[in-house]
Amino acid sequence: MNLLPETVARLARIPTIAGIKEASGVLDQVSQIVNETLDDFVVLSGDDSLTLPIMSVGGRGVVSVVANVVPGAVATLTEACRGDLQAAQAIHRGLFDLCRAMFVEPNPVPVKSAANLLDLCEADVRLPLVPLSETSRRRLEAALAACPYVPARAIAA
Question: What is this structure's pTM?
């Protein structure tokens, strides 16, 4: 459920609430939350593909799905967002298609399938989830193969 920025600002004044995972996809909303909360209130991106834009308006990191398969790239992106815009933009471009592919079907099905393709774990999911469709699997394989942060040799045949 999306919380209005005014509600988040009120909640941010409660000492036991330290931050929010912001996944509305609305940068104006993120900006308003950052502007209306104290400096020690942490706003984290809840959308991998919006990490760079959210951090550019004051977010401090990401609750990441794609980091399950390319953790180093996500860590480097968030670090670059703190001072090297060109590097952050380049990493963002390199990760963007993979970030989008991670949501071709409900989470965690694509990320488990990606981890399986990288030989990190099995792709099994429990009901009510179902295995990744063949069409989505091909899309995910293409995104993994195209991502410069996934070594080609890492993708299981």
Answer: 0.91
